[in-house]
Amino acid sequence: MTMKNMHWMLLGAPLLLAVATGCGSELPSGLEVNTKGGGDNPVGTIGGGADDDDDPTNDTSNQPAETAGGEGNTFNHMGGLGDDYVDPFEVLEQREEEGPPEIRARLHSCQKLQIRALRNTLAAFGVDLAATGNPDPAGELLDKGADALGAANYASRTGEARTWTNSGATKLQDIFVMAAPEIITNMPNVEHCQVDGVGIEMFDENDSCNPDAVSCLIGKPATEEHVAICNQAVMTGSDIDKSKQIAVASLLAGAHTCE
Q: What are the residue boundaries of the structural domains of the chain, listed by start?
């Protein structure tokens, strides 16, 4: 070994001693060795957590048992189906009795015929809404019964009602009864009731209801049941003219009250 190399070794010895001394000191904060042997890692880990483990998924606060529901923190569901249980076969029987969906919807939800629409309907069948008399004709009943029909009250900022009430449906029937004679008389001249440009009569020579006229009244193709109901109303009355009047009014009321 040369004298030069020996010189450098002597100069580096203190530095090596200082490094060795530093490595034997305590670890920096947060890197202490866990030698407790507890928690999930008995041999110890660096940077111990709440349970002597630096894996947060092993902490007891993150375990399912800590957040699982129990009698003290969950809703107490009934053991059985309860008193509100309905036999599905009873529901099916009710649905079959009510008819197909389009009929059930009409039974359970029906918007009221708006007053302007009622006026337009009567006028389209040739009813004179400006007529006066005693008893009140259809036009007067309509004007005087506006409140019962759910007319809008703009002074109180109340719009027109959208659903039927008992008084409103009753008033509508009264209006149709008083309008029926004019409707029967004007039926051949009502343009939207004509078939191939030819007017139709409400009743034939035997006082039977004309299916085409019934279709025009209710706004859809009349079924045999519709015509049968009309004929029954005509034939069961003591006065044929009044019976026809009631038959026409009943068809109109049924068509516009979802019955």
A: 115-256
